């Protein structure tokens, strides 16, 4: 897709916005709150399952709200995209590790593969400097799973369902460990496991897309300089 077509899909941001403003954007403040919620999880993980599950749910609920806030107040930024996606991935990886420890260490190889896919996807997405990746991955030539999950630079309902199934599966397995008589169901586990596998397959296709289309001009080479507002940035995963 030509660069001009990509830019047309994303509203321009005011040029006068600087890093000093970006770090205090409302969606970024919401993400700072999400970090505090994640840090609270280990203190309750083994003893208060309902509270822990509620906090984990709150983290992902705020994930939806920060995207809405970014669009509502026109506060999209590359920093917001980086912060949001990093919190998404790290919160899932940390909680998933805890669930694995509750069930069996024999699941550790599966967890390691899942984590590798998540981190590789995140790292490659964050290397995109100017191209709005959610638009680019949904081109007609893209794999079917990417076209199903993305349209016009946004998640489709199917894409949202796969993402919510991933962290919803975490919550289900976690609570089912503490309340098996009430919650455990092989049918539910099987259904959610299929959705979980599809979500990972979508991540793999994203990784392949970025590896095939990666080029030096698209690489983020700003190093440790404060990020500036990018009209192609996004505040939500």
Helix and strand layout, with pairings?
Blueprint: H1 3-8, H2 19-22, H3 26-44, H4 49-72, H5 78-103, H6 108-125, H7 133-136, H8 144-149, E1 150-151, E2 154-155, H9 157-178, H10 180-183, H11 186-213
Antiparallel strand pairs: 1-2
Structural features, described:
This protein has helices at residues 3-8, 19-22, 26-44, 49-72, 78-103, 108-125, 133-136, 144-149, 157-178, 180-183, 186-213, and strands spanning 150-151, 154-155. With 237 residues, the protein is an all-alpha fold. The protein has a two-stranded antiparallel sheet with strand order 1-2. Helix 3 (26-44) runs parallel beside helix 5 and helix 6 (108-125) runs parallel beside helix 11 (186-213). The longest helix has 28 residues, at 186-213. The radius of gyration is 18 Å and the shape is globular. 30% of the residues are buried.
Index terms:
mainly alpha, 2% strand, globular
Helix percent band: 55-70%
Strand content: under 5%
Net shape: globular
Radius of gyration: 18 Å
E-strand count? 2
Tell me the span between the first and last alpha carbons: 21 Å
Question: What can be said about the biggest beta sheet?
Answer: 2 strands, antiparallel
Indicate the structural class: mainly alpha
Number of helices: 11
Strand order of the largest sheet: 1-2
Low-confidence stretches: 6-16, 220-237
Mean pLDDT: 82
Helix and strand succession?
HHHHHHHHEEHHH
């Amino acid at each position: 897709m030509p660069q001009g077509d990509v830019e047309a899909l994303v509203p321009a941001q005011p040029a006068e916005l600087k890093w000093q403003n970006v770090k205090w954007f409302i969606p970024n403040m919401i993400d700072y709150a999400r970090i505090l919620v994640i840090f609270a999880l280990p203190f309750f993980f083994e003893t208060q399952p309902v509270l822990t599950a509620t906090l984990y749910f709150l983290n992902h609920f705020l994930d939806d709200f920060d995207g809405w806030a970014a669009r509502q107040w026109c506060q999209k930024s590359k920093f917001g995209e980086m912060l949001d996606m990093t919190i998404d991935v790290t919160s899932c990886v940390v909680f998933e590790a805890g669930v694995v420890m509750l069930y069996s260490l024999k699941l550790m190889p599966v967890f390691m593969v899942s984590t590798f896919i998540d981190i590789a996807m995140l790292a490659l997405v964050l290397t995109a400097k100017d191209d709005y990746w959610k638009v680019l991955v949904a081109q007609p030539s893209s794999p079917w799973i990417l076209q199903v999950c993305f349209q016009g630079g946004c998640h489709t309902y199917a894409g949202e369902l796969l993402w919510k199934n991933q962290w919803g599966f975490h919550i289900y397995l976690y609570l089912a460990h503490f309340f098996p008589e009430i919650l455990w169901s092989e049918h539910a586990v099987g259904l959610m496991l299929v959705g979980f596998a599809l979500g990972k397959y979508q991540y793999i296709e994203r990784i392949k897309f970025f590896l095939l289309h990666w080029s030096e001009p698209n690489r983020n080479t700003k190093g440790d300089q404060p990020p500036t507002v990018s009209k192609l940035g996004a505040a939500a995963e």
